[in-house]
Amino acid sequence: METVRAAERELMARLPEGALMQRAAAGLAVACAELLGRVYGSRVVLLVGSGDNGGDALYAGARLARRGAGVAAVLLSPERAHPGGLAALRAAGGRVSADPARDLARADLAVDGIVGIGGRGGLRPDAAQLVRTAWESAPVLAVDLPSGVDADSGEVPGDAVRADATVTFGAYKPGLLIDPARERAGALRLVDIGLELPREADAEALQHADVAELLPRPAPESDKYRRGVVGVVAGSARYPGAAVLAVAGALRGGAGAVRYVGPAAEAVLARFPETLVHAGPPDKAGRVQAWVIGPGLGDESDALDDVLAAEVPVLVDADGLRFLTPERVRARTAGTLLTPHAGEAAALLGRGREEVEAARLVCVRELAARYGATVLLKGSTTLVADARGPVRVNPTGTGWLATAGSGDVLSGLTGSLLAAGLATRDAGSAGAYLHGLAARRAAGPAGAPILASEVAAHLPDAWRDVTE
């Protein structure tokens, strides 16, 4: 967040005193009005901490009071409340609450202005109790980010606000995009306050247009090799379905051809007769432009040596990750993409799963650095990291995607993008994006249970959503 703070300091040096805060307060007041629906006669309670975050809330409260709202400010540190904002609120007819519990019980909206992006650690006990009361009483709108979450990492180190919506200023903070903090932010709204930010960010979330630029398009002269041939080493006697799902993801992901190596050839051919099958080993299966290895592989690790020795990009998932060492990955000359979920990432890092889930951004960066690879960390927030650019945060998906086999589909899909020539970082990002869109398609607008095979079936729809 130092980048945002530096941009704010630079802009404030060029503007009249207080002008930047007024810009933020104006955008915040508009968002409050939209949530309320009707400003005149509504009751708004401001939870006000010290510093500029509380000042934003107070100035926004003054704007609402001038439009006929009854606005009360709960001052957590009365002696440190923003003096200009407090004076503006009082001048507009707002007041300082003498009975916070009573005011919150009657509120139509609570505004969280307790802690800004400079906050560290969870909320203090008195603030945490106020926040619980607010949550039980009225919708909560957070100012810049929910108080108590870490703006830089998305970690939630203690008690924190759970907002229905968050209005953030100048730029999306990583903590608003990455779980566990993301789920506390609610609906996000960005207010442009005129910050001049560097092009290189700490984290970025691709949108339709960004992904469309990455996706390969076959030309009239294309053949299966120009489109990309991906090899899939997956499945076992115990898990033949993993092979079928990985091949489904690869075929639906645009591969010119899929070569399957493994014991589930009969099941794969029964479902996808266009698949090229081989008994193995992988280095005898024929020409490929990328390999996917690991889904449903079980304890069979011999094929991993062949695949890692290949001079083409390799995606390692699921059981394949159990046999990796940093040295084996770093020795490769072609790109490597690792796609663990939190439990597999924990094993690779020698940590507990709960540590990974609580610090996803830190852990994906550590994995990428340790293995010298691109890492796609799956989960409620899917992250893609390597040693070069900002971490990419995937904005698509649904909770219904947490179903057996969905990761196998993602592996095949992403492998097909690697075979088409995308760099590991771009393939991981585009694959996760399409996978999430396909899951939303399968679940429907209201959300419903889905199967991994249904996600694979909707990949062409997701592709069209992005490119049309």
Automatic annotation (TrEMBL):
Cofactor(s) essential for the protein: Mg(2+); K(+)
Catalytic activity: (6R)-NADHX = (6S)-NADHX; (6S)-NADPHX + ADP = AMP + phosphate + NADPH + H(+); (6S)-NADHX + ADP = AMP + phosphate + NADH + H(+); (6R)-NADPHX = (6S)-NADPHX
Pfam families recorded: Carb_kinase (PF01256), YjeF_N (PF03853)
Domain YjeF C-terminal, first and last residues per copy: 207-466
Cofactor details (free text): Binds 1 potassium ion per subunit.
Subunit record text: Homotetramer.
Protein name: Bifunctional NAD(P)H-hydrate repair enzyme
Organism, scientific name: Streptomyces angustmyceticus
Gene: nnrD
